[in-house]
Amino acid sequence: MRQNPLAYLDDSLNDLRQQGLYRRLRVLDGEQAAHTSVDHHHVVNLSSNNYLGLTTHPTLRARALDALQVLGVGTGSVRTIAGTMAIHMELERRLAAFKKTEAAVVFQSGFTANAGTVSSLLGKNDVIVSDELNHASIIDGARLSRATIKVFPHRNVAAAREIVAALPRTQRTLLITDGVFSMDGDLGPLPELCDLADEYGCIMMVDDAHASGVFGRNGRGTVDHFGMHGRVDVQVGTLSKALGALGGYVAGTKSLIEFLYHRARPFLFSTSHPPSVAATCIAALDVLEHEPQWMERLWANTRFFKAGLEALGFNIGISESPITPVIVGDGALAMTLSDKLFDAGVFAQGIGFPTVPQGKARVRTIVTATHTEDELQFALDAFRRVGSELGII
Ligand SMILES: Cc1ncc(COP(=O)(O)O)c(C=O)c1O
């Protein structure tokens, strides 16, 4: 009888079970919304990246349906063969205007935008200087590029400077940071890194996946928030979080975008977005421009919820964004807190090693613009009950 060559996978899964790291997928029974049903439980949802509540916005739904009727369900090709529709070009023009750059290119996801861009811009003779907590897609892109990767401690500009200063002056170097770090909700030190990039002639790149729609005027991101227009060569954003749909993009000069059209492998070798997705993203940009109330509510809810958690005595770290970690330290305790909150009607994911360092396990919360104050108070009450039951507060 043939032996199962994949038997080692079961061993790995059993290891995960033994370490308490095995996770079953939680399943939403309906829409991605602030109050929804997950695994047949009604919950206040603090786990999504749907910052502005746009996943269910009526304008986005209507534009998606229109595009579906007029343009069909798919494109049937990669962008570089027959998969570029006028609506893809319109989205790219709109993103460039939004980010105040010459041009923009859309990828299938934020992940492929980062990985495809880093791996095509740099080669084996180059150096990538990267914050230790940068997103996995940046790490994968850096590995694919075959460049030398040098990692600096989180937000430590002095350490980044030491690395850059030790390189030959002619060395092509990419300096790269997340705009908002997804596990701690803190911001990359963009002004200081831009100074460093200017001084040593580095390519400056920021991944604004969690900042687009959240920071800056009308949600233009951290480059706008810090007034760094013209000083960041490569801006990555996502269409999958605050913008409510799916996709990633790179904004920058015309030459950068044309180069990526020719060299970024996910752009060249993977089918383009269905036209309904492109139409949804254009509608999301219209909403950002004309409905500032969503960002205002997001920030009002963020302030309310952070203040509530802090008053209860939880350790909420150093977040400056709507991402608020509740840090408990022990991995098993974070998972128990998350499970008990779920039973109490609050969906907030537990996160442990290796996603965050050992001893820094947490439950991560993200409020959205569409949570009501009652829902957030309900969540705070659950945190108080479960937190004291587990001896965390
Ligand atoms: C910092 C960061 N960059 C990039 C991504 C990838 O974006 P997307 O979900 O659009 O692929 C994520 C999302 O998980 C992220 O947190």
Give your account of this protein's structure.
This protein has 393 residues and is an alpha/beta fold. It is built from 14 helices and 13 strands. α5 links the parallel β4 (127-131) and β5 (148-152). The chain is globular. The model has no long low-confidence stretch (mean pLDDT 97). Bound molecules: pyridoxal-5'-phosphate. Pyridoxal-5'-phosphate binds at residues 109-111, 114, 135, 137, 178, 182, 207, 209-210, 238, 240, 248.
Q: What is the secondary structure topology, with strand pairs?
A:
Blueprint lengths: L6 H12 L16 E4 L2 E5 L12 H14 L14 H14 L3 E5 L2 H12 L5 E5 L4 H10 L2 E5 L4 H9 L7 E6 L11 H11 L2 E5 L14 H4 L8 E5 L9 E5 L1 H10 L1 H5 L5 H16 L2 H20 L10 E7 L1 H13 L2 E2 L2 E2 L9 E6 L6 H17 L4
Parallel strand pairs: 2-11, 4-5, 4-6, 6-7, 7-8
Antiparallel strand pairs: 1-2, 3-9, 8-9, 10-13, 12-13
The structure holds pyridoxal-5'-phosphate.
Helix content: 40-55%
Question: In this structure, how is the largest beta sheet organized?
Answer: 7 strands, mixed
**Total DSSP helices:** 14
Radius of gyration: 22 Å
Query: What oligomeric arrangement do these chains adopt?
Result: single chain
Structural class estimated from helices and strands: alpha/beta
| Mean pLDDT figure | 97
**Bound compounds:** pyridoxal-5'-phosphate
Order of helices and strands: HEEHHEHEHEHEHEHEEHHHHEHEEEH
How are strands sequenced across the largest beta sheet? 3-9-8-7-6-4-5
Mass-distribution shape: globular
Number of strands: 13
Describe the structure in brief.
With 393 residues, the protein is an alpha/beta fold.
